[in-house]
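Expect chain and fold; thus:
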Amino acid sequence: MTKEEEKRRCLEIQEKILKELEGREGIADEEISECVEEYVLKLGHTVYLSVEKKGEMIRTIFNSIRKLDVLQEILEDDSISEVMVNGPNHIFIERDGALLPFPKSFSSQGRLEDVVQQIVGQVNRRVNEANPIADVRLPDGSRVNVVLPPVALEGPVVTIRKFPDKPISMDRLLALDSISVEAVEMLKKLVEAKYNIFISGGTGSGKTTFLNALSDFIPAEERIIVIEDAAELQIRGIPNLVRLEARGANVEGKNAITIRDLIKSALRMRPDRIILGEVRDAAACELLNVMNTGHDGSLCTGHANSAKDMLNRLETLVLTGMDIPLPAVRSQIASALDIIVHLGRLRDKSRRVLEIDEVTGIENGEIVLRTIFRFQETGQAGDGRVVGGLQRIAKKLVHYEKLQAAGLYEGE
C-alpha cells in the first residue's frame, strides 16, 4: 500500500468514526481507541498490513481524532527539539541541531486549523482572522507560536519549541561543555549574593534553558515572583514561588494584562527576587525600576547579538516607554544591571556561554562592560565539533560589595 493510499484509508476510517460519534459527549479515549483498532483490523482482512503498519495506522487515526493529529507523534519524540509547520503539507523538525523534513502531513488545511484551535483553546487564548497571531504554550511547557491566514499566505504556520520533562541542570551544561566549572562557581556566588543578572543571546541560543539552570542557585527560603509572556520557565526547589503570565486582549480588544502590569503588581507581593522570562518591549522600564528599588537578585533574558548590543537594545526599549534623556536611561541601566551573560550557537550547532561581563558604570557617557570570561576557540574536532572553552579575562569584579555583604568574597 502506497503512502497516498494509506493516507486515504486513514482519512476514510477517521470520517466513519467521527460520524458514529456525532452528537455523543464524554466519550473516553479507550472507547475511541477500541473503535479505531476494530476498523483497522477489518481493513487488514482486505489489504495486507504488517503488525507494525497496523499499529502505526491506529496511532495516526487516534491522534487525528482525539489528540493533535500529526503533531502528537512529533511531540512524543524526545529527540525532536523544534517543530515547524508551514501549512498542512510541509512540516520540518529539528533533531540534534539539524533541520529535517517530516514525512507526514495534515489531511487538509481545515484539519490543521482545528488543531491550532485545540492548542490555543487549552490556555484560553483566541486566534482568528481578526487576531491571526498568538503565542501560547502546551501543557508540558512547550512554547507555541501561531500565525494564521490572511497573514500566513500558504496556510497556518505553527512553530513549537519543545522543552524536556526535566529541565537541563548546570551539571548537564557542564557535561555538554557549554560552560566551565570556574564560571559556574562564580555565577553561583553571584546569584546567592543577589547580583542582577541579564542573559542575552540570539534565537535558539539556550537563554531559557540557562535561566532555568541558574535559578537552581537561588536559596530555597526566598520568595520568587516569575513573570512571563507565555509560561515556559521551570523553576525548581523554591516552595514560595509565584508564577504570573500575561494575557492578550479579548475579541473586543480589551482586558489585556501586560508584562508591565504584572511587574507593577509583583512589587506589592513582597518578592525577594523577580524573574522576568524575557524583556522585549517597554516593560524594560519596569524591569529597571525593580532592579533599582531594592529588589536585587533579579534575573531576565533578552534577544541580542552581543552583550553590548543588549545594552543598546535595552536603551531603545526604555525610550519607547519613557520620554527621558538618553544619558538618564544609560545611568538607570548601569545602576540596575550587574552582570550580563551572553550565549550563542556555534557553527557545529552547540550552544555555549560566549561571554560573561560586568557592568561597571558610566564613562564618557557610555555604559562600560568589563569582560570576566570569554569563549576562546582552540580548534575543530574530526567530527566537526568546535573545540574551545571559557577563558578567565579578569581575576576579580570591580563591584564586589554584594559578595562581601553576603560573606562570599574571598579577595579573588
